[in-house]
Amino acid sequence: MTRWFLLLAAVLGLSGCGYNDFQRLDEQTKSAWSEVLNQYQRRADLVPNIVATVKGEAAFEQETLTRVIEARAKATSIQVTPETLNDPAAFQKFQAAQGELGSALSRLMVVSEQYPNLKANEGFRDLRVQLEGTENRVTVARNRYIQAVQAYNVLARSFPSNLTAMVFSYQPKPAFAVTNEATFSAPPVVDFTKK
Q1: In whole angstroms, what is the distance from residue 90 CA to residue 82 CA?
Q2: What are the pLDDT digits (tens) for 119-176?
Q3: Which is nearest to 95 in space by CA: 40, 31, 149?
Q4: Are the C-beta atoms of residues 167 and 79 closer than 8 Å to each other?
């Protein structure tokens, strides 16, 4: 009788421990992360076509173009593994490289506005639309990943599932963060005296 009671207590205790929830949420974060990687790869694949099109504009700023090429090389050189999700330092390095590529591409698009021949180039316009669509997809994929990580981390930190997290070494996962938060909190400088 005591054996059955202990077995029943163990089953009831495990049903509320959150183990299955950890498995489900871990798979959701992996799936969401895969989509983020897919969109980053799509963006990286567009860069060579954009660079080739922009190179056709003889007077284009070489420094801006070089920054895009270097940022793409850096972003695609980082090896991303499933362990990246559980390694805050590796995750931060990957996130920083992707941020540099996004920044370099944004600068390229701003500078390209100064070149009428480039703006009139149909191929460049098509690539620009594809890049803008991809950036939107990156944002959506990152938001889904952030939500999946939030659900996982809440489970990992909540009682009694935090006990299961300790027993099975389920650590909270890193989330995307704003890399230069100070630049967003500083008010913009407006000077009407410059022309």
Answers
A1: 11
A2: 778 888 898 899 999 999 999 999 999 999 999 999 999 988 888 888 888 999 888 7
A3: 40
A4: no
Enter the pTM of the model.
Answer: 0.75
Regarding the domain delimited by 21-177, which CATH topology (the fold level of the hierarchy) does it fall under?
A: de novo design (two linked rop proteins) (1.20.1440)
Q: Are 78 and 18 contacting, i.e. CB atoms less than 8 angstroms apart?
A: no
Q: What is the CA radius of gyration of the chain?
A: 23
- Size of the chain in residues: 195
**Over the stretch 97-126, which tens digit does the pLDDT of each residue have?**
999 999 999 988 888 888 888 777 888 889
- Distances from the Cα of 128 to the Cα of 19, 43, 107, 172, angstroms: 46, 11, 13, 37
CA 51 → CA 42, 54, 124, 154, distances in Å?
15, 5, 10, 43
Domain chopping of the chain, boundaries: 21-177
Phi first, then psi: give them for residue 84, nearest 5 degrees: -55, -35
141: enclosing H helix or E strand = helix 122-157
